[in-house]
Amino acid sequence: MKISNLSRRSGVSVPTIKFYLREQLLPPGAPTARNQAEYDETHVSRLRLIRLLTGIGMMSLASVREVLAAIDNNCLSPQRLAQVVNRALLPEHAMPSSDPGCHDPPASRVGSFLDGVGWNVRADAPERESLVRVLTALEGLGVPCIEDVFAPYVDAAERLAVREIERQLGTGGAATVVARVVLFEVAFAIMRRMAYTHHLGLRTESDGCPPTR
């Protein structure tokens, strides 16, 4: 198909497609004439994946580039691919300063917590660092006990992770796995917010206040 048809099929504008081609996020088509090329379904799929990563996944182009490179690397293990996607999904935040009077810094407590949970998380994993940031911020709010705070999240995360992995088996290639990881990550966050709002509304109603819609 020509680039105009590729644009219609993928929902991505021609200028954006050309930009992705220049940035090598999209592989070139088969040359047919000077400044013309033929594209196929693999290009449609790649463009839809890029839209998913930048749109729903809210990834930067630099992160998208890393994820696409990981997808195209046939030697990458599923665990390593998941690590690349997880890093791309993590927002960049400044590290809050910890309490200088605390003898057991947040990083140490997060490490002990993960060891207790039994999760094999690399010391340099960005998820570990992000959890340290969260704990540090929580301590600033006066919530110091990591076990009490995160135990329910561990239970929920365990069940969801096992279920997602079981459903992913045999569902397709690396691109499909990445798309599912991104979509379920966002879906879980959205449903948690909806549940929070719902139950908060129920409590508000029980207090005699009119619910908001």
TrEMBL record:
GO molecular function list: DNA binding; DNA-binding transcription factor activity
Entry-linked Gene3D superfamilies: 1.10.1660.10
PROSITE patterns named among the record's database cross-references: HTH_MERR_2
Pfam families associated with the record: MerR_1
InterPro entries from the UniProt entry: DNA-bd_dom_put_sf, MerR-type_HTH_dom, MerR_fam
UniProt keyword terms in alphabetical order: DNA-binding
Domain HTH merR-type, first and last residues per copy: 1-70
Protein name stated in the entry: MerR-like DNA binding protein
Organism: Micromonospora pisi
